Amino acid sequence: MTTNGTNGANGASKPEQTVxxxxxxxxAHNREWATKTAQEQPELFPTLAQGQRPEILWIGCxxxxxxxxxxxxxxxxxxxxHRNIANVVNPTDISINSxxxxxxxxxxxxxxxxxxxxxxxxxxxxxGNKKLGLIDTxxxxxxxxxxxxxxxxxxxxxxxxxLRLVELNVRRGVQVLKENHAVIDAINERGLxxxxxxxxxxxxxxxxxxxxxxxxxxxxxxxxxxxxx
Length: 229
Description:
By secondary structure, the protein is an alpha/beta fold. The protein is built from eleven helices and five strands; from the N terminus they run H-H-E-H-E-H-E-H-H-H-H-H-H-E-E-H.
């Protein structure tokens, strides 16, 4: 019988093989990355230690396949990030509103980007009718979009319906963002831009969602949501 890593036939020791889990592997890779980055960009970390001046606020999904800084080819410090399940922009969500107010009002970002993505689990859940628990409450805005567009969605095959709901969610989220008081002020005072995009997890490509609005829509939003001190 072989015990303690020893070969029973000849008594020779076998090296024990350790399988490194993803977290410990990540820690090891972090040291390698930090060393390499410091060598290639010696000013990066000292500059970041002085503070942050990102030009982009990115609101995306928590999905592990959607790494905003990596997909955009940017560096640490370039993007201020908020992520949640299915990139829902809820006007009563304290977390996302706190992020928006800080990024727009304090950091003075130039762009707010709302990113949906293909193969979204939250969208798939909202298109189904299985009771899932607490997340059902979080997905209510998506179900409301499903209800409002039910006739259109039911005519599509499941893959097309999912992509359509992803787009509808981005469009609705951009609308909610533009109704935020901090965003309204920044658009008027310094030309802040709000964008909607969809990330294809199967190709790595970002596509911007064309969202047009006329002057009447802009004026109505301003009249309804613009607030003063």
